[in-house]
Amino acid sequence: MEYITSAKNQLVKNIKKLAKKKYRDELNQYVLEGEHLVEEALKGGADFVYLLTTDGGLIAYRELIQHVDEDKIRVLASHVFEGISEIPTPQKIMAVVKKQNLNSQNQSYRKILILDNVQDPGNVGTMIRTADAAGFSHVILGLGCADIYQGKVLRAMQGSQYHIAIEEHNLLTFIPEQQTNKMKIYGTELNKDAFDYRHIEMSDSFGIILGNEGQGVSKEVLALTDANLYIPILGQAESLNVAIAAGILMFSL
């Protein structure tokens, strides 16, 4: 266990750098902040690099901290901890952990949520958490999606990255590969050929694609789908938030 009292400490500087994707990729690490996220990381078998807390945190979170090797624990002065926190009222516990491998391909695909260029961190995190809650086996991130290791995505996921498989793929090759294995892939678009989602009978394994907040699913990706689905709008709203739409579909199909 090591005590750190200066914001100029090199470890503190390195942790602040992890707010940027460039350094997360370079160091293969990211930061989890708050009691719940640290607890989920421990339960999920995350590879801890450091656990950071304060004198008060040592007492408040002693049951969590006892599960981390002592040589990985750093106790920061309160002002130093607050300087690296992304939360207005920090809980005084955070962890630096190793990133997961998102490039591996798992053959046990069942129900998969596919995201095409979904850029808002809150939407990406919420959809991953909802896929977890809805019993989906995988979330596939296509090109242009928000980095799941940034703070806003992590807080929206609430630890679901340890419950559900998340992978990154080029959708233009991934989708045909799954169709070769007899999996139906459905896009989401409102057009004359699309089907009301309530009238589709799904098999045990399928993929559903949600697209960019403003542009929807790209034409190149839509061209690969087996069919496209839509959610009827009953009121005057022009559209649904993409994360809300994803939730309706995942719990209904």
Automatic annotation (TrEMBL):
<dbReference type="InterPro" id="IPR029026">
    <property type="entry name" value="tRNA_m1G_MTases_N"/>
</dbReference>
<dbReference type="Pfam" id="PF22435">
    <property type="entry name" value="MRM3-like_sub_bind"/>
</dbReference>
<dbReference type="GO" id="GO:0005737">
    <property type="term" value="C:cytoplasm"/>
</dbReference>
<dbReference type="InterPro" id="IPR029064">
    <property type="entry name" value="Ribosomal_eL30-like_sf"/>
</dbReference>
<dbReference type="GO" id="GO:0003723">
    <property type="term" value="F:RNA binding"/>
</dbReference>
<comment type="similarity">
    <text>Belongs to the class IV-like SAM-binding methyltransferase superfamily. RNA methyltransferase TrmH family.</text>
</comment>
<keyword id="KW-0489">Methyltransferase</keyword>
<dbReference type="InterPro" id="IPR029028">
    <property type="entry name" value="Alpha/beta_knot_MTases"/>
</dbReference>
<keyword id="KW-0808">Transferase</keyword>
<dbReference type="InterPro" id="IPR053888">
    <property type="entry name" value="MRM3-like_sub_bind"/>
</dbReference>
<dbReference type="GO" id="GO:0008173">
    <property type="term" value="F:RNA methyltransferase activity"/>
</dbReference>
<dbReference type="Pfam" id="PF00588">
    <property type="entry name" value="SpoU_methylase"/>
</dbReference>
<feature type="domain" description="RNA 2-O ribose methyltransferase substrate binding">
    <location>
        <begin position="31"/>
        <end position="103"/>
    </location>
</feature>
<dbReference type="InterPro" id="IPR001537">
    <property type="entry name" value="SpoU_MeTrfase"/>
</dbReference>
<dbReference type="GO" id="GO:0006396">
    <property type="term" value="P:RNA processing"/>
</dbReference>
<dbReference type="InterPro" id="IPR013123">
    <property type="entry name" value="SpoU_subst-bd"/>
</dbReference>
<protein>
    <submittedName>
        <fullName>RNA methyltransferase</fullName>
    </submittedName>
</protein>
<dbReference type="GO" id="GO:0032259">
    <property type="term" value="P:methylation"/>
</dbReference>
<dbReference type="InterPro" id="IPR051259">
    <property type="entry name" value="rRNA_Methyltransferase"/>
</dbReference>
